[in-house]
Amino acid sequence: MHFLKKTNQNLRLGVFDKATESLTSLLYFAKVMDMLKQVSSVLQTEQAKQLASALVAIDDVKTMQNFLRDVMTEKEITEVGARLEAAKMLQSGAKYTEIIAKTKLSSRTVARISDWMQNGMGGYEAVLKTEHHSHILPARAA
């Protein structure tokens, strides 16, 4: 009788665990979708469009470095650089522990980068793809 009682209890816990896992997945999906909506609306502001246009207009590294230094703190530049490095490392299959040790980012930030690489708007993928050809400058129309 004790065995049957224990087995029944374990079955209920197993069902509860599955339900909890499903609910957690659903909540995570809802959170990601909400984040995408927020980013999409932020990107539609006039200020965001102006920033994107300014960045696209810069065609050499030195000017970009100067612009970034004028509009960002050194800490912000370091943080964005570390995030890009983490994305490269994730793409190459590095473990979170290696990424954290090299970039000094938190595990949560690395997880967010991984999420954005998988479920985001494709920005990391586009930058990492073009970075392989960064030694070739695009031709500019005269």
Tell me the number of helical segments per DSSP (H or I, 4 or more residues long).
Answer: 7
CATH superfamily of the domain at 68-132: TrpR-like
Estimated radius of gyration: 22 Å
Portion in strands: under 5%
Helices and strands: which structural class? mainly alpha
Query: End-to-end span in angstroms?
Result: 88 Å
Supply the CATH class of the domain at 68-132. Answer: Mainly Alpha
Give the second-level CATH assignment, the architecture of the domain at 68-132: Orthogonal Bundle
Order of helices and strands: HHHHHHH
Give the overall average pLDDT: 81
Residues in helices, as a percent range? over 70%
Major sheet size, sense and barrel closure: none
Global shape: globular
Which stretches are poorly predicted, pLDDT < 50 over at least 5 residues? 135-142
CATH-derived topology of the domain at 68-132: Trp Operon Repressor, Chain A
Number of strands: 0
Question: What does this entry look like structurally?
Answer:
Residues 135-142 have low confidence and may be disordered. The protein has helices spanning 2-43, 46-57, 61-71, 74-91, 96-103, 107-119, 123-131. 80% of the residues lie in helices and 0% in strands. Helix 4 packs antiparallel against helix 5 (96-103) and helix 4 packs across helix 6 (107-119). It is globular and about 60 Å long. It contains 7 helices and no strands. The chain is mainly α and 142 residues long. It has a domain at 68-132: Trp Operon Repressor, Chain A, CATH 1.10.1270.
